[in-house]
Amino acid sequence: SGGYAEAIQLIGANKCGKWEEEILDILEMVPGKNDLAIAAATSVFEGSEVDQQQLEKLYSLTGNSTQLLLHYTRNNKFSEARQLFEQNQGQIDSNGILAYAKMLITKGDTL
Q1: Over its length of 111 residues, how does the chain's per-residue pLDDT go in tens digits?
Q2: What is the C-alpha separation between 33 and 29, in angstroms, rounded?
Q3: How far apart (Å, rounded) are the C-alpha atoms in residues 51 and 12?
Q4: With CB atoms 3.0 to 4.6 Å apart as the test, which of 8, 41, 60, 103 could cross-link to 73 if both were Cys?
Q5: Could you tell me if 45 and 55 are in contact, meaning their C-beta atoms sit under 8 angstroms apart?
Q6: Taking Cα atoms as reference points, which of 84, 83, 8 lies closest to residue 40?
Q7: For the residues of the chain, what is the DSSP string, one character each?
């Protein structure tokens, strides 16, 4: 099962053509939650200049609610952050909750 992660790392190292989409396609093929593949894809995407939508797609594909929430809070996407928070409370760690709380305070809103 390490083949998925290796393929993702290979594509990420070469970054040819629509490499982001190729990595997302591989992730969609991975059976279940493959932590190696998810880690490989996340590190490639976060270490690159990628389109915001591609990053959001990665985080939602991998079920990484905390990373997606942090991404939304960093980019002041208030309504997206609120919706994600309300739908995935049980899957968000303390870092995500803290970032969300800070965003609410700066926005002058409350939980």
Answers
A1: 468 999 999 999 999 889 999 999 998 888 777 788 888 888 888 888 888 888 888 888 877 888 888 888 888 888 989 998 898 878 888 888 898 899 888 887 655
A2: 11
A3: 15
A4: 103
A5: yes
A6: 8
A7: -HHHHHHHHHHHHH--SSHHHHHHHHHHHS-S--HHHHHHHHHHHHTS---HHHHHHHHHHTT-HHHHHHHHHHTT-HHHHHHHHHH-GGG--HHHHHHHHHHHHHHT---
